[in-house]
Design goal:
The protein is of the alpha/beta class and 174 residues long. It is built from 7 helices and 8 strands. α1 packs parallel to α6.
Amino acid sequence: MHRIKLFITDIDGVWTDGGMYYAENSADRFKKFNTADSAGVLFLRLAGIPLAIITGEDSGAVRQRAGKLGIRYVFTGVRNKLQTADRLRKELGIDWDEVAFVGDDINDIPLLRKAGWSACPASAENYIKNEVDHVLSRSGGQGAFREFVQTYFERRGELDDIIQMYLDQIPPNA
């Protein structure tokens, strides 16, 4: 497996179960995120690998979650995910084979096809599963993003090192 230098993720159907919650008498919409996915962000940060969110939904909830996790590259309301990813990839000086992407729906197909390593959650449609290098065992909203990141480090034999890097940051007697 190529060394990945940029991870890109979709949100709805990957970090969430794809559902949206609407308040009865309000324009408010709510998304439920699984906190397990924050470990994937932590692992990437420890490894020095940037993460980008590219989502078609123009969502304040996504921007808020990304801000809390300190994710620098956040693109919401995107119509052409491949084009956005290509601009970021070029800006960072990264080749396509050094890009990993996890997505779950039809608008993700062009980027899934272009990324050096691609995956989708177990809950994705079969025609999406046929497009990816790896089908995750977890469904969207159930820690699929964390599994995506962990699988990469496991396949490279680096997961234990990443976990140890985290443990080394914990002060003794904490």
